[in-house]
Amino acid sequence: MPTAISLRGLSKHFGDVKAVDDLDLDIADGEFFSMLGPSGSGKTTVLRLIAGFEQPTAGRIELGGKDVTGRPPFARDVNTVFQDYAIFPHMSVRQNVEYGLRVKRVPRADRRARAEEALATVRLEGYGDRRPHQLSGGQRQRVALARALVNRPQVLLLDEPLGALDLKLRRQMQIELKQIQRDVGITFVFVTHDQEEALTMSDRIAVFNEGRIEQLATPVELYEQPASSFVAGFVGTSNLLEGPVARDVVGSDGQFVVRPEKVSMLAPADAPAEDGEHCVARGTVREVVYLGAATHSVVDLDAGATLTVAHQNTDRSIDAALERRGQQVLLVWSRDSLVPLGGNDAVPAGSTTGRQPSSPEENTP
Amino acid sequence: MKLSPGLRAVLRVFTVLLLVIIYTPLLLVVLNSFNASATFSWPPQELTLHWWKVAADSTGARHALWVSIQVALLATLISLVLGTMASLAMRRTRFFGRNVVSLLIILPIALPGIVTGIALNNAFRTVLGLELGFLTIVVAHATFCIVTVFNNVQARLQRLGTNFEQASMDLGAGRWTTFRLVTFPMLRSALLAGALLAFGLSFDEIVVTTFTAGSQQQTLPIWIFNNLFRPNQAPVVNVVAAVLVLLSAIPIYLAQRLSSGVTQSAAAAP
């Protein structure tokens, strides 16, 4: 597949801070590519470098095989959907959408037709004459999308475009965005700190940490085969076993991750026969968290670590689960679901408890 | 905030007192412009439009008014261009001493008029070798009128941020097109408010004008000052003063309306 974006040795330093550090990345044509990471991991800076709002300290940016590194934003065939949408308040919705065509001197009738088409794509037919302040947050988001799509760019850059929407609208827009991307066939580069959003929409995801890519993989690989404890902690809830705990429970040295839904919780009396296929660990239930569709139990292992166990609430077993608080239990999981990690990276603080990163925006200087 | 009834009454009395002290003399001027007695005997025995007619026929007053308007318009125009350019430059580029430059631009409005006046008088006559006249008044006024435009535009730019301009460039517009279609329209009301204030400042300025006008040119405030103590001109001075009050109140009122209207629409469209 031809390459839409190619980054070679890309670095951006702000003073002593290496926001982006010697990055190599290829994004394929027509791909839905996500850049996922916590605040300050450099993902937004990469986006701004591709758009041309920042100049790299070192390295090269190619769009469709052409070097665009030194070019200003208006001389690059990319368009951006901004985090705060940046819809021009002194123009109507139609004037906003037509803007890119207007400055490229597309004839009036032609640009009117294309603007209507773009508005239809984002399901905003008939909103052309509205003023931006008359629109809801979700509608404004769609206008921003239409304003970018109408130019039929090679690449569409999206900077946390769903961050300002409420959860329900965000889920709906995730599905719509994916569908729009399939329909128009444009390469989408999507920046987010929300792992669920990235997993839902992307063909591939690059997980960023401190200006570098920690792992580049499909959503399934990323979740099932995290390459480092950072990725395991950032994408989904990670249960990390290392050091003496790993020796004790797994039977070998190293770092291992097991996802919460792959662990079963049994009463101590129901211990399975030793078969070499399973890991078994004894522990005490510290907390039971009811989440509606699922229940999470936080278990302190006798060996030392803390594991989260997810249980789908497919039957009425929740009553029994809630009563387990403070009780001794046995955790059992298949050795197949145990993921060995390569590096010795530190797990990001707080990530083992399964909380999502809570910072709503990235503060790149 | 809840205030006790007693405190509220006291505040009310003080407010009324303050307004009375400020506006009674002004009302007196307006009233006296209709006073039939040339010595302003109080209370007026008879009202007349005679002085207004005399004032309208006074070529000195009419000419001075016209000079004032021209000076104010030109000084405002210069302030608009230079003030906008300065505030844009201050935002785009971060250079050493940026805050110092910003302070230096704002300073003239705080400097005592007499100091500015003497300084400009010296510079114009000795260093530049210019003859004092219409142009020197305009330049002198522009030095402090620029502040209102600069401040208004800078505040607006700060509130707007750079996102809209980045969006415009991202959509393919060059720098000039971005200014024309995005930045300028969003600055328009700030420019108008700044211009009205600048016009008001220039129109009633007297101290700096005294030192930069020379002997040939008279602005309206200077004409008033020169005629104030001529007994036969006093009634006409009253009329001119009344006109001046009205003329300078209008731009200030408009500027205020404009800036409050802008904050309202900005609140409606966050």
UniProtKB/TrEMBL annotation, chain A:
Gene3D superfamilies noted in UniProt: 2.40.50.100, P-loop containing nucleotide triphosphate hydrolases
Polar residues bias spans: 350-365
Domain of life: Bacteria
Matching SMART domains: AAA (SM00382)
Family matches, as Pfam families: ABC_tran, TOBE_2
Gene Ontology molecular function terms on file: ABC-type putrescine transporter activity; ATP binding; ATP hydrolysis activity
UniProt xrefs under SUPFAM superfamilies: MOP-like, P-loop containing nucleoside triphosphate hydrolases
Coiled-coil region(s): none
Any Gene Ontology CC annotation: ATP-binding cassette (ABC) transporter complex
ABC transporter domain: residues covered: 5-235
Ranges where the record places region Disordered: 342-365
InterPro entries attached to this UniProt entry: AAA+_ATPase, ABC_SmlMolc_Importer, ABC_transporter-like_ATP-bd, ABC_transporter-like_CS, Mo/tungstate-bd_C_term_dom, P-loop_NTPase, PotA_ATP-bd, Transp-assoc_OB_typ2
Keywords from the named record: ATP-binding, Cell membrane, Membrane, Nucleotide-binding, Translocase, Transport
Protein name: ABC transporter ATP-binding protein
Automatic annotation (TrEMBL), chain B:
Transmembrane stretches, start-end: 9-34, 64-88, 100-120, 132-150, 190-214, 234-255
Membrane topology classification: Multi-pass membrane protein
Stored InterPro entries: Bact_Polyamine_Transport (IPR051789), MetI-like (IPR000515), MetI-like_sf (IPR035906)
Key word DNA-binding present: no
Keyword Flavoprotein (UniProt): no
Domain ABC transmembrane type-1: 65-255
Entry's localization field: Cell membrane
Record's keyword terms, sorted: Cell membrane, Membrane, Transmembrane, Transmembrane helix, Transport
Family per record: Belongs to the binding-protein-dependent transport system permease family. CysTW subfamily.
Protein name, as recorded: ABC transporter permease
